[in-house]
Request: fold
Amino acid sequence: MYNLTEDQLLIKNMVREFAESEVRPIAGAIDKEHRFPEESIPRMAELGLFGLTIPEGYGGSGGDVLSYILAVEELSRVSATHGVILSVHMSVCTQAILQYGTEAQKKKYLPDLAGGRKLGAFAITESGAGSDASGQTTSAVRKGDSYILNGTKIFISNGGYAGVFLVMAVTDRSKGLKGLTVFIVEKEFPGFMVGQLEEKMGICGSSTTEIILKDCVVPAENVLGEEGGGFKVAMGALDGGRISIGAQGVGLAQGALEAAVDYARQRVQFGRPIAENQGIQWMLADMALEVEASRLLVYNAARLKDQHKNYSRQSAMAKLHAAQTAMSVTTRAVQIHGGIGYTRSYPVERYMRDAKIIEIYEGTNEIQRMVIARHLLA
Reply:
């Protein structure tokens, strides 16, 4: 199936079993209660999910990108919240340290991150800096062997529970994008505070918070990459992150499709299951087509990354298509359920609410189109 190796199938099946037995039973409750799934994190760590792509020498399991993508997909099929917790931790924090960090940084941070003893987060967004990274106002001023950071970040996934944050700040405003720097910031650093917890429309179990930096002292050795190289680090992290968010979209859409198929078989109207109606059959066929196309795009981008080939355009395509698929498939899943689908009696209304954010974070659909067009016109 999809030319997966035995190891990849083993991981896929392991995560599916975990998702069905331990995540599905709490998925509705964490959504309703807006509660971070603390009970799932230790088990995810035991299964090695937080270090899937990290080499064994740094405490990971040394797996490939596609294996990790399969894990995000299988979690998201049951709970998009769990999918994004893993995605943010791995793609835009842990993997970024592996790719851009010094040997000392890797040895210091990766073992705890890979082992799930600490969660990772990525702090770039501000009230005036979303799609436009150049709008950063958070500042970083060198003072001896440290930098002093001041500013506020918003919409930080894993914010309330992460121990390690990658934070973008301005080190030289006169240089524009070349004046941005990324820092590895620990939550225990002086001047670091977690601010407001957001109540969201979807992925309600994900901890999304403000991060407040008030004269936050960060050692100079915690610059990730180099001073002024923050935009490169951030864009590289986001390129990889888009693949995993695409996988979240695929998993979410797959879960909605399966729920719609099951309901169509069971629901009887006018003396027969609604699955016998051609209108329903065509809806299901279109949904399956979109899911399959998105999955192939996502897997292709993951394989290109595994092969160390340029995958920026493919990751943007995968994320864009999967985001649109997640939204359209979950919407039709609610439609197939009818009135009951609009209630919390069935999970499809949660799937639909969860799907919307995939069109927004890690780069909006419009930003993905810009990325794709730039590659075409280069």
About this structure: Strands lie at 119-123, 139-143, 146-157, 162-170, 180-186, 192-197, 208-219, 223-224, 268-269, 272-273. The chain has three domains: 6-118, 121-227, 232-377. DSSP finds ten helices and ten strands in the chain.
